[in-house]
Amino acid sequence: MVQRIAILGSTGSIGRQALDIISAFPERWQVIALAAGSNAKLLEEQIAIFKPTFVFNLGKRKIEGAQYISLDEMAALPEADIVLVALGGSSGLEPTLSAARAGKVIALANKESLVMAGEIITSEVKRNSTEIRPIDSEHSAIWQCLKGEPPPRRIILTASGGPFLNYPLDELDRVTPEEALKHPSWKMGKKVTIDSATMLNKGLEIIEAHHLFDIEYDKIEVLVHSQSIVHAIVEFADGSAKAELAFPDMRLPIQYALSYPERLENKALPQLDFSRLGELSFRTPDLEKFPCLKLARTAGEKGGTYPAAMVAADDVLVDLFLKETISFTDIPRYLEEILSSHRSVPSPELGDILEAASWAKEKVKEMVKKCGSQ
Ligand SMILES: NC(=O)c1ccc[n+]([C@@H]2O[C@H](COP(=O)([O-])OP(=O)(O)OC[C@H]3O[C@@H](n4cnc5c(N)ncnc54)[C@H](OP(=O)(O)O)[C@@H]3O)[C@@H](O)[C@H]2O)c1
To answer: CB-based contacts of 362: which residues, under 8 Å, 6+ apart?
Structure first.
């Protein structure tokens, strides 16, 4: 049976790769809805190829032959079998929640939505007897390793370490956006690439794993594994550990999230040659060099609206770093200030989360402006 897919964020890195996968299996999947932000040109090209019934773009540009609907409507489309959320940053929150409320199977790349509102989203998913199929490679790996297993003793998320893994700490304040965008293993959108360089991304993934797998923070660890072949390790009570290994290519976890529980042969995906892998190394991350990792873990552990404030502030800070308004090391500095001045709401509802996010965006802009004028 052909499954009907809605892709939110189709013009981004994950969205484009999802369309690649779907194109390789026309007998399995049909694109019925596409949503983009401001890249209307690419969206039009995608519409010409995939002929979706429903579209969304930020500019509300009319597109012949397709019905314009809101992002929230698209996320809850009765016609969709799977909603793939590949929106960037905090823009993914409300559509992911709409998909969960509508009982949709969610193929989720947008980690920020779970970080901001993990309890709300996961309880809606349970209430509506649906599921989240993770696309983030580490979480896809954990999901695969946990199948048929009891709760684990601990899980280990691996991190490539980004472009500054071996960079001197005292030179980090001078790195340029161009240098920070040169990720050693993955080709991704700009925001997640900068988050990987600061390692905030790994901190967000700790919170994402906590919500997705209902596991306590003290059982989630991070190890730097610069080869990016082992995506996560899960250890059980008897000391036995399972890991998932694959070439670093997001098309694989995207395909698995769509095909689950089936595994499909796809000749376009690169295969591992174990005889040529060489050394696989693991080491603990340097928290002095990458303070964002610790900040995010603390925000997750404290809960409330801290994670939402952090995600929203980071959306702004990454943008300002890319525009060369602030330095690379300003990102953790401002995030720390935001977290220490935030008044968190315990057990927040959606309104509290959105309020915390808009407070953090305004506050961080104000802080940067004040600093610039001194
Ligand atoms: N890329 C990866 O390899 C990777 C790996 C793991 C997890 N993820 C996660 O997947 C998500 C997407 O990452 P990405 O790298 O694909 O990002 P990206 O390349 O920046 O793409 C983001 C997509 O969201 C759209 N978008 C952004 N803001 C929007 C808004 N307000 N309304 C509607 N559409 C909006 C963009 O549209 P326009 O481009 O048209 O403006 C684009 O289609 C992130 O949460 C990221 O952490 C990504």
So the answer is: none
Q: What is the CATH number of the domain that holds 52?
A: 3.40.50.720
Is 133 a pocket residue for ligand 1 (Cβ < 6 Å)? no
Would residue 255 count as lying in a domain? no
Say whether pLDDT at 183 is over 90: no
Establish if 282 belongs to a structural domain. Answer: no
Q: Residue 374: is its pLDDT beyond 70?
A: no
Q: How far apart are CA 290 and CA 332, in angstroms?
A: 8
Cβ–ligand 1 contact at 136 (below 6 Å): yes
- Is residue 68 scored above 90 in pLDDT? yes
Domain count, the chain: 1
Our answer on whether the CB atom of 13 is closer than 6 Å to any ligand 1 atom is yes
Mutate which of 7, 14, 358 for ligand 1 pocket (most atoms within 8 A of beta carbon):
14
**Beta carbons of 34 and 43 less than 8 angstroms apart:** yes
Contact between 308 and 353 under an 8 Å Cβ cutoff? The reply is: yes
What does the alpha-carbon distance between residue 34 and residue 165 come to, in Å, rounded to a whole number?
37
> Which residue range forms the structural domain that includes residue 73?
3-135
What does the pLDDT look like over 305-349, one tens digit per residue? 999 999 999 999 999 999 999 999 999 999 999 999 999 999 999
Q: What is the CA radius of gyration of the chain?
A: 20
Around 144, how many Cα atoms within 13 Å sit in the side-chain half-sphere?
Answer: 24
The string of pLDDT tens digits covering residues 208-236 is 999 999 999 999 999 999 999 999 999 99
Residue 344 DSSP label:
P
| pLDDT tens digits along 261-271 | 999 999 999 99
- Residue 68's DSSP bridge partners are 55
Q: Tell me, using a 6 A CB cutoff, whether residue 253 lines ligand 1.
A: no
Decide if 43 is inside a domain. yes
> Which among 160, 141, 285 has a CA at the least distance from the CA of 213?
141
Q: Is 31 in the pocket of ligand 1 (CB under 6 A)?
A: no
pLDDT of 59 above 90? no
Cα dihedral: 177, 191, 117, 199 (round 10): -50
Judge if pTM exceeds 0.90: yes
Contact 309, 342 (CB under 8 A): yes
> Where does 128-267 have alpha helices with state H?
137-146, 177-180, 190-198, 200-213, 251-259
